[in-house]
Here is the input.
Amino acid sequence: MGMLISSSVLAQSIEVAILSTSGPQKSSFLRHAKSFEAQYPGSEVILSFYSDADFKKSIVKWLSQGSGPDILTWQGGPRLYQYVRNNQVKDLSRLWSEHGLDASFSEGAIGAISLNNKRYAIPTSYYQWGFYYRQSVFDELNLQPPADWKSFLNVCETLKNAGITPITIGAANKWTSAAWFDYLNLRINGLDYHQRLLQGEIPFTDKGVRDVFEKWKLLLNKGYFTTRYNGWDWQQAMPFMYHKMAGMTLIGNFFAGGLPPLLKEDFRFFPFPQINPAIPAYEEAPMDLLMVPNYTKMNKTIEHYLLSIAGLDFQKRYNDVSSMISPNKQVQSKDDYFIQQGQKVLNNAAGLSQFFDRDTNEKMGSAGTVIFTEFMDSKNVDATLSALENARQAYLL
Here is the structure.
């Protein structure tokens, strides 16, 4: 069940259903609701907070039955598009156009809420994925953050020759291995290919996918990964960097929140290096948003609320307390190195993927992450492509 919170009891009300398990995020929405009601007398904002599991059950029910809260939080990319294609989400293009919102939001964020050049949501937050490393380790070996694949391989080889495992990963929960597939595919084949592949439109036996696994196999064959990754979750794999036994890790920015305070200043970030120069810099950045179900009757209060969510005040306050990044590129991020680096990368991204399990359906997401992790053990490209193709035919066709 959701937790129902009403700021006041007034005539003109809107209900907003929010997927949130964070106390600071809830407080931010509550403060914003009170501020909104003060700015628009006669309005009432009713906030209903849901856990992840409850929200995902409820959203299916609301959209299928055609009744429920007026505004819903949700996620960008294909998870939004599925409801757009079912005609269950309102087109907000007029609102975007009349208020010039395209000028405020990053290109990648706009892409993740758009289909056929129409806008279907207001982005609220996202965060970057990329490589985190020890600056002191790189300094000792005269290494620079690599910008391309050749330089990346050189960094890995230099670390290995120094007795340091280049890359640490904990894949006991499987999903961390998906980040490697996602980024290799984005850098080799691009975002459109990646999205069509994960929606079942391209077979996993395609040459483009083979290229991804051949690149990955090269890293595995060279011994660039920690060896017992299958027995650790991502957090258990991080002490290798704390003790300078590993050089870097590919992870989301939630990693920075768990860094030991004494070591945090020594950690730095760089985006996944370029592989194919013809492919723009697409990034992995799971994004949250607000959307309006098609059953909702639009009115000025709803429009004002959406615009206030898009505005600088909410975007900054909400993302500062969440340690996330505002998709509104006019927001000045808080004084945090990793947030600032992430904002720079995402503001310049040509487009965004959402992460493997968000960009495909649930069954394919579960199967794929297991297959990726098994590949790290077997290094068998043919068997992996066959397993993924079997999963595509079972779950995506």
